[in-house]
Design goal:
This protein folds into 2 domains: about 50 residues, Orthogonal Bundle (Arc Repressor Mutant, subunit A); about 130 residues, Tetracycline Repressor, domain 2 (Orthogonal Bundle), CATH 1.10.357. The chain is built from 9 helices and no strands. Helix 4 packs parallel to helix 7 and helix 7 packs across helix 8. The longest helix has 24 residues.
Length: about 190
């Protein structure tokens, strides 16, 4: 008789793998390491995740769910105010990059480790980054500004800078500057 996986075993394996991937990098973590750290058998791991790519894609989807939830919470009640939503989005990213456990953006880290990858994990990472940029561009498009493309580019550059500066000891200073830069850009944006 086939055994049934214990409830929550998939989530436990995924959480454990996610912690390992985030701390050490995807390339450095093997499936046996995940099995040992999760305290599960090989058959359980492969029943839920037939390959490492499947596990990594699931990890990145879980990261996206957390980011989407955090950004939705930060912008709740601001749907009618695109400038306030932009400020809140950047402020949330700034706050997340200064957390003591923050090691970088999981999507950017993956694409840095595997720049040539076109598989499932890379698609998840690229889709997240594309959608994040589209969110900013969509909000900027709702503003009455003369050059929305330029403003979107500048705000995206600030977001990229937040992630790039997160490893610096003075990341809190960079985060404060980033939110101020967005305020300054929005205030200075010329109306149409």
């Amino acid at each position: 008789m086939a055994r049934t996986a214990a409830p929550g075993s998939r989530e436990r394996v995924l959480r454990t793998a996610g912690e390992l991937f985030y701390r050490h990098g995807v390339r450095a973590v093997g499936m046996n390491q995940v099995i040992d750290a999760a305290g599960c058998g090989k058959s359980l791991l492969y029943a839920h995740f037939p390959s490492k790519n499947d596990l990594v894609a699931a990890y990145l989807r879980a990261c996206r769910a957390v980011r989407d939830r955090d950004l939705a919470a930060a912008t709740a009640g601001l749907a009618d105010d695109p400038a306030a939503r932009l400020r809140a989005l950047v402020a949330e990213i700034a706050a997340s990059t200064t957390r003591p456990d923050f090691r970088g953006c999981a999507f950017r880290i993956y694409l840095t480790e595997f720049p040539e990858d076109e598989g499932g994990p890379a698609r998840v990472a690229r889709d997240y980054l594309r959608d994040s940029r589209a969110e900013i561009d969509g909000l900027v498009a709702r503003l009455d500004v003369a050059n929305p493309g330029q403003l979107g580019d500048r705000i995206w550059l600030i977001v990229e800078g937040l992630y790039a500066s997160a490893a610096r000891p003075d990341s809190a200073t960079a985060s404060a500057a980033a939110t101020q830069f967005v305020d300054d850009l929005l205030a200075a944006a010329a109306p149409r």
